[in-house]
Design brief:
Blueprint lengths: L1 H16 L3 E12 L4 H10 L2 E3 L4 H6 L13 H4 L4 H12 L3 E10 L5 E13 L2 E11 L1 H23 L4 E4 L5 E4 L2 H6 L3 H4 L11 H8 L9 E8 L5 E12 L5 E8 L3 H12 L10
Antiparallel strand pairs: 1-2, 1-5, 3-4, 4-5, 6-7, 6-10, 8-9, 9-10
Length: 285
């Protein structure tokens, strides 16, 4: 009995001092796992249950005031029935209550919905679930970061979509990995025809230019070169190119070629001169 008491105290200290949010739901009315799945789902949400041994990190994660004991709170307030949580418990049932990184949609103490990631283990005896326990992590910051990155990616995609100068991205293997829509507008190149092809099929001097571009560090000022673009029907077009480098998420250097056909600057200047007829512009009010 003394050994059991000592081990119990040791276990409680481990749980209490853990930085991970640890929880246990004990079913006063055990869940009958021999029932049809829909009935098991109903029991998981409706059978009488209580929190057991939830640690201070769990209380902090759900925003509980310091003076309150998380274990005394109602389970359904934080873990309610909704479509996400129904999918969560169905996943638990299918895995015999042994899952990693399963998502649930909980509520914090202020009533805000929070997407949580759960590692769960179940205690099952005689075909009944008596308790399930695990660790939980807040996914909202990660989701927010992902949404921000998606918005930035969409914005960059939209910017590239209206960029008037042709743009080519070449990877370290010398293959064309991405192109801007202007490559089709300006040079009549179909995107599907060039993606994945060797860069020298479009830029015959690529091997030479790649040697020059190797001196460019990611984020550093690029270099300007003149090159020929090999188009369909054996047509060649001389272009000015500004070459820069960037590092992708995997740490690989890739090169961006921004192309401009000779005389384009003069055409733009001429167009601007023809518009300057003395009338006030929009910016002048």
């Amino acid at each position: 009995m003394q050994q059991i008491a000592e081990e119990n105290e040791l276990l409680r200290n481990f749980v209490a001092t853990s930085r991970d949010a640890l929880w246990c739901i004990e079913y006063i009315e055990p869940v009958d796992l021999s029932a049809p799945e829909s009935e098991i789902v109903r029991q998981l949400f409706e059978n009488d249950c209580v929190w057991r041994m939830c640690n201070p990190a769990m209380a902090r994660l759900y925003g509980l005031p310091d003076e309150l004991d998380f274990n005394a709170q109602k389970v359904r307030f934080f873990f309610g029935r909704n479509p996400t949580n129904e999918r969560f418990v169905r996943k638990l049932i299918a895995s015999n209550f042994h899952v990693e990184a399963a998502a649930s949609l909980d509520s914090d103490y202020a009533g805000r919905q929070v997407t949580m990631e759960n590692d769960v283990r179940g205690h099952i005896e005689d075909g009944h679930l008596h308790r399930m326990m695990g660790a939980v992590r807040n996914l909202n910051p990660q989701i927010s970061r992902e949404q921000t990155l998606e918005q930035r990616l969409l914005m960059l995609t939209n910017i590239l979509g209206v960029l008037p100068d042709p743009l080519i991205v070449v990877n370290a293997a010398g293959e064309i990995e991405s192109v801007g829509p202007a490559l089709g507008w300006q040079f009549g190149c179909n995107e599907d025809e060039v993606l994945g092809r060797p860069a020298k099929s479009l830029v015959p001097r690529w091997d030479e230019i790649a040697g020059m571009a190797a001196s460019i560090g990611a984020g550093e000022p690029g270099l300007d070169v003149m090159l020929n673009i090999s188009l369909a029907a054996n047509r060649n077009l001389q272009c000015a190119a500004h070459i820069t480098a960037f590092e992708d998420a995997g740490g690989t250097i890739k090169y961006v070629l921004l192309l401009r056909a000779p005389g384009e600057d003069q055409n733009v200047a001429a167009a601007n001169d023809s518009m300057d007829d003395g009338r006030p512009t929009h910016s002048e009010g």
